[in-house]
């Protein structure tokens, strides 16, 4: 390990440093986090979360805009409270996420509710809380929402999530704006659905929304979608349907390995050009770009196992903790927490789970010994939220580092809690 660099160049987390052969996050050595809280542990940097949010805010300054953090990326109450205090809105996809936002001090009137399968209960919950907008994804959902709002004596603010049919050029599992996709309403149907919405008594048409995909590295497809939306908004105005906001979803990518994502300002520039001189409020739903590189997964090597064709470093984190490598073949940089004077060797970094798919990284050159700590980088987004208890593994602890202070924001699960709601038969 060389100071401040790894195989990909500079470390992707701005507040992560390699000083005298030792990794520190903000002012805190990661060895100390491991000693205090054990491993595996997700560790986030408050300063990195804050600066990621400020980058969005700055890039939008002078524009009427709301940044709604996509809760699905990381829904820990500690993380949500950091964003709530910074004045963020929130993009949710379930009643559970709404409950988390409210428990973390988020404002309901800054919540947008996305998702193709909202249940009646979730609609009630969101209407009673007074959320800012339902991003409606189908004709059937529109009818149901109107009925539920009527039963409660409420008016539901809505946007239609339209599918602009542009290719976001990203991994097929996380591309959402193409025709063959379950998301949004077809672009061609949008206008007539808006007319239908305008005729329903318990809806208030507030805006329009789209989200074309995730880990986007090219701003062009989003700008193309933005242009399509702007044109549609103009056509709706001719019909007398005037929208207050335009929601362009999330999607901005981050560097995991050697990607060169645009900065927030670069990403937004062509899109803001589309909306120059228009007065609608702009909304965004970024997840990954706010938390991805603000977090890492700290794990300890249990065993080194030389194999016939490759060497394995068996660690105490596994695919249940971080599913992205197994699920998407995703690359996460792996760094030694303490530099060691031993020759480097190529290792597959694997967990203890009984599946060959249980790997966190493959073929990485590391100088390590049994018992050493590793940091799996860029794990702040879709890490903990996609974790499971497979193999009856308690989920990891979560810690937010703020300067030299480490705050435990989720205790490690206990095994007894894992089956507390179960009982033997008879
Ligand atoms: N808004 C909507 C409607 C979404 O579906 C998503 C992500 C976002 C916002 C946030 O997108 P972001 O800014 O984070 O790209 N599990 C995958 C990512 C799935 C993204 C799903 N939707 C992964 O680990 O890469």
From TrEMBL:
Cofactor requirements of the protein: pyridoxal 5'-phosphate
Start and end residues of each Orn/DAP/Arg decarboxylase 2 N-terminal domain: 48-291
Catalytic activity, EC: 4.1.1.20
Binding site for substrate: 288, 324, 328, 355, 382
Domain called Orn/DAP/Arg decarboxylase 2 C-terminal: residue spans: 42-380
Residues the record marks as active site: 354
Cross-referenced Gene3D superfamilies: Alanine racemase, Lyase, Ornithine Decarboxylase, Chain A, domain 1
UniProt binding sites for pyridoxal 5'-phosphate: 251, 285-288, 382
GO molecular function: diaminopimelate decarboxylase activity; pyridoxal phosphate binding
Modified residues (N6-(pyridoxal phosphate)lysine): 72
UniProt keyword list: Amino-acid biosynthesis, Decarboxylase, Lyase, Lysine biosynthesis, Pyridoxal phosphate
GO biological process, one term: lysine biosynthetic process via diaminopimelate
Reaction equation(s) it catalyzes: meso-2,6-diaminopimelate + H(+) = L-lysine + CO2
Biological or metabolic pathway of the protein: Amino-acid biosynthesis; L-lysine biosynthesis via DAP pathway; L-lysine from DL-2,6-diaminopimelate: step 1/1
Protein purpose: Specifically catalyzes the decarboxylation of meso-diaminopimelate (meso-DAP) to L-lysine.
HAMAP family cross-referenced by the UniProt entry: LysA (MF_02120)
Protein family according to the UniProt entry: Belongs to the Orn/Lys/Arg decarboxylase class-II family. LysA subfamily.
Subunit structure of this chain's protein: Homodimer.
Name recorded for this polypeptide: Diaminopimelate decarboxylase
Organism: Thauera propionica
Annotated gene: lysA
